[in-house]
Design goal:
heterodimer, A: 385 residues, alpha/beta, TIM Barrel, seven-stranded parallel beta sheet, three-stranded antiparallel beta sheet, 14 helices, 12 strands, 42% helix, B: 212 residues, Methyltransferase, Methionine Synthase (B12-binding Domains), Chain A, domain 1, Rossmann fold, 2 domains, five-stranded parallel beta sheet, 9 helices, 59% helix, globular
Chain lengths: 385, 212
């Protein structure tokens, strides 16, 4: 096949058809770089960093677009803007702690960006849920220059455009931030009714962020992101039955609202951990793309996931970071990419990406090798060996 | 009509804290010895909770409420056990390392260890190496259990071990480690004696360490 534009390549992929080669991506809710790795890459390629920082979840990174041009990845991301009170901190000595519009505390702990404060840790009554000073998604500053940026990228480039999740995380994530991890987990077994009322409200508030975001970027994007961490390294964080009985319908409601507003857009879910047991219900909720596919965890073998769910899901990720990208050499990386492409690339429906975020212990040459080899080794048709 | 011990056992499995409290008190009043309740009811209940977790039928929330329920029973039994001079399996000091605030897993391990029959000294979170060393020197512990949930704080496990060696106290205790970014290979490479992937495994590992 002749070389396709990134947009066409991703279009075919997300519709379960084989393009010219497997798309490859850096950025978005799928993965990002540490400040350190970004600087190493910037120095390597020799481009000038803009002052611009983008909101990614609950923190910020430098604008990746110049870097992505050098790496040759297929997707470019559109980001909702922060509100004026949000400090776009760099992770480093200049970090300024602050409390945000949700009542959450942003601080640096051992070099790790921590979101704390648990402002709703003492929630006891449903009536308290409505009383909480929820942020207003429709604040005008969230969309400054957003439509222009989307139009510019859409009309003057051929990249696949992706809406970065316009929220810190979706309703499960936000519940954990606001209520605290332990309380949230306990509520799933001891206070199910209160949990559901909270999750319902949380989803509705977050839906406003998607609404305002899609108003500006909807016509231009192919994919929009959601993020919920449902798994630990060993298995589901809570009983998958609970997801099915309670949480599922609110995810579905969110997705239905998104698809009503932008019917062409595919929904990507970033969900860490050994989450296989949730997958049938995630498909029922309407998720189209699953990331990051932590291939070394139980139940997350890419070949099995493709076999069992490849009809319904596009997979994004799977290239092992912990061992191969951190400790391997170029040959190991080639082998790993070939393997994942073979396991998940048949019939389209696969996007090359790492199984986790790149950590500071990933050597620069391995990072570069991933993107170089990824473009080289994903060409269709795929060797079955 | 189910006897007290059955009711306590099931209430632990179901995470019914108040039922546990009620029936442990009742059982004591009925003259059932505390050591019996510990060994025949509480410990088997937590062992079953651990099995259910390993089998993928219980998850972190179920373990949390079961552990709390068991702890409610233990709180009543402890003074009676001390009175009866019941032997513990050993003493474990547990903590999350310096710079790390994660504690749900560590708390679960602490309760599972108590449930297994250990005396547990919970040092909390953000525990510097110096504190672990002080505990070795002053508190007659058999095992030090360290937890780290971040790749950045994992290094503090290694640092603590190194300082223990430098200060000549390493050989006085067994060291076990755990936490999401850790692997058995890592634990072995830094010279830890034991490693576990979850609270249920941790209790088993601690028991195994005592017999080495």
């Amino acid at each position: 096949m002749e070389q396709l534009t990134p947009r066409k390549r991703v279009e075919l992929t997300i519709h379960h058809q084989e393009p010219d080669r497997v798309p490859i991506s850096l950025g978005g809710s799928a993965n990002h770089l540490t400040e350190n790795l970004y600087k190493l890459l910037k120095d390597h390629f020799g481009f000038k960093e803009t002052d611009r920082r983008t909101l990614v979840g609950f923190y910020s990174t430098p604008d990746y677009n110049p870097l992505l041009d050098y790496l040759g990845t297929d997707m470019r991301f559109l980001h909702l803007r922060p509100v004026d009170s949000f400090i776009m901190n760099e992770i480093g000595p200049s970090f300024q702690p602050f409390i945000d519009e949700w009542g959450l505390k942003h601080e640096l702990l051992s070099g790790y960006y921590n979101l704390g404060g648990e402002p709703l840790a003492h929630l006891e009554r449903q009536s308290d849920i409505e009383k909480y000073p929820w942020p207003d998604p429709y604040k005008a500053e969230r969309i400054t220059g957003l439509r222009e940026e989307a139009e510019q990228l859409y009309n003057f480039t051929e990249y696949s455009l992706v809406g970065h999740r316009p929220v810190y995380g979706n309703a499960w994530e936000m519940s954990r931030f606001l209520l605290g991890m332990e309380k949230t987990l306990l509520m799933t077994v001891k206070e199910k009714i209160l949990f559901e009322a909270f999750f319902d409200k949380m989803s509705n508030v977050l839906d406003g962020f998607y609404d305002v975001f899609l108003n500006e970027v909807g016509p231009f994007i192919q994919i929009i992101e959601m993020a919920e961490d449902l798994g630990t390294n060993n298995g589901p964080m809570f009983n998958p039955k609970f997801y099915k009985e309670v949480m599922w319908r609110y995810h579905r409601r969110t997705i239905e609202k998104i698809k009503k507003k932008a019917p062409h857009v595919k929904i990507m879910l970033h969900c860490d951990g050994a989450i296989r047991r949730f997958i049938p219900d995630l498909i029922d909720a309407g998720f189209d793309i699953l990331n990051p596919v932590e291939s070394d965890l139980i139940g997350m073998d890419p070949a099995e996931l493709k076999r069992d769910f490849g009809k319904d899901l596009v997979f994004m990720g799977g290239v092992d970071v912990k061992k191969i990208l951190t400790k391997g050499n170029r040959r190991d990386i080639q082998r790993e990419i070939r393997r994942r492409v073979r396991e998940m690339g048949q019939g389209g429906g696969y996007i090359l990406a790492p199984s986790h975020n790149f950590g500071n212990d990933v050597p620069l040459e391995n990072l570069l090798a991933f993107f170089e080899e990824g473009k080289r080794l994903g060409i269709y048709p795929i060797d079955q060996e | 009509m189910a006897n007290s011990q059955e009711l306590i056992y099931n209430a632990i499995l179901d995470g019914e804290e108040e039922v546990v409290t009620e029936h442990v008190n009742l059982a004591i009043q009925q003259g059932i010895p505390a050591i019996l309740l510990l060994n025949e009811t509480l410990i088997p209940a937590m062992t079953e909770v651990g099995s259910l977790f390993e089998r993928g039928e219980y998850f972190v929330p179920e373990m949390l409420i079961a552990a709390r329920a068991m702890k409610a029973g233990l709180v009543i039994l402890k003074p009676l056990l001390v009175e009866a001079k019941a032997d513990s399996l050993g003493k474990v000091a547990i903590g999350t390392v310096k710079g790390d605030l994660h504690d749900i897993g560590k708390n679960l391990v602490a309760i599972m260890l108590e449930g297994a029959g250990f005396e547990v000294l919970d040092l909390g979170i953000d525990v510097p190496a110096e504190k672990f060393i002080q505990v070795v020197q002053e508190d007659h512990v058999d095992i030090i259990a360290m937890s780290a949930l971040l790749t950045t704080t994992m290094a503090n496990i290694e640092i603590t071990l190194r300082m223990m060696r430098e200060q000549g106290v390493r050989d006085r205790v067994k060291i076990m480690v755990g936490g999401a970014p850790l692997t058995r290979e890592y634990a072995e490479s830094i010279g830890a004696d034991g490693f576990a992937t979850d609270a249920s495994q941790a209790a088993k590992e601690a028991v195994a360490l005592m017999s080495r």
